[in-house]
């Protein structure tokens, strides 16, 4: 039994050493890391930003260096206790509030903070808890589980008529933990999903080897699916690809 354990330990050490060597070789090769992934998952709050994530945020032709603070906010660092006589405001909302593509001082959060400080003649601190593509249901969970720890004097909710009503109705019918009833006990399956998804995101953001393997496996999987697809689906893909090339040539 002791020999089996030693052999197993030796195997684990050998695999880890091989992975570390491969990671080191990729880094020494000068290979650039792929775009960082900023979205993680919380079993209660749903979509959240990965804590302390940093990298290039891209949307279309626009790129911006995005930094997520240690509490998962698209904002600068904030202490739990408000300094001095500062008026503290918690800001909740979706992508309009998070404004991933702007530095803090250019967001309406930063502009409002400056204007209120000037008009009130008092320091004002706005904490941005906005997260792209979430609804009021999840924002209420964020308030109870995250924002409240900062003891804000005032909470502002940015509400988007375009989809928040529809999304909130879907959440009400989904059977997810209900913030209106102060339900904070996520199902075990959701917590397992949280651990799996967030572990994968951390690997992606910190390992070139994982990025290479993940992308390579994805290309292989797509290639196999394409080869096994029925002939009529392959013909549709070919026609679409031909049309795209013709449009590009014309433009």
Any guess at the CATH architecture of the largest domain?
3-Layer(aba) Sandwich
Which structural class do you get from the secondary structure elements?
A: alpha/beta
Beta-strand content estimate:
5-15%
Overall outline:
globular
Query: Uncertain regions: pLDDT < 50 for 5+ in a row?
Result: 247-251
For the largest beta-sheet, the strand count, sense and barrel status come to:
3 strands, parallel
- The residue-averaged pLDDT reads 85
In the CATH scheme, the class of the largest domain would be Alpha Beta
State the helicity in percent bands: 40-55%
Instruction: Give the H and E element order.
Output: HEEEEEHHEHEHHHH
Q: How many strand elements?
A: 7
Question: Distance between the terminal alpha carbons, to the nearest Å?
Answer: 70 Å
Remind me, CATH topology of the largest domain?
Answer: Rossmann fold
Radius of gyration: 23 Å
Strand order of the largest sheet: 6-5-7
Please give the count of helices.
8
Number of domains: 3
What can you see in these coordinates?
The chain has a 3-stranded parallel beta sheet, with helices on both faces. It has a two-stranded antiparallel ribbon with strand order 1-2. It is built from 8 helices and 7 strands, in the order H-E-E-E-E-E-H-H-E-H-E-H-H-H-H. Helices cover 50% and strands 14% of the residues. It has 3 domains: 1-31; 39-188, 3-Layer(aba) Sandwich (Rossmann fold); 207-251, no CATH class. By secondary structure, the chain is an alpha/beta fold. Strand 1 (39-42) and strand 2 form a beta hairpin. The chain has helices at residues 2-28, 95-98, 108-120, 136-145, 164-174, 188-206, 208-228, 231-250, and strands at 39-42, 46-49, 54-59, 62-67, 87-92, 124-128, 154-157.
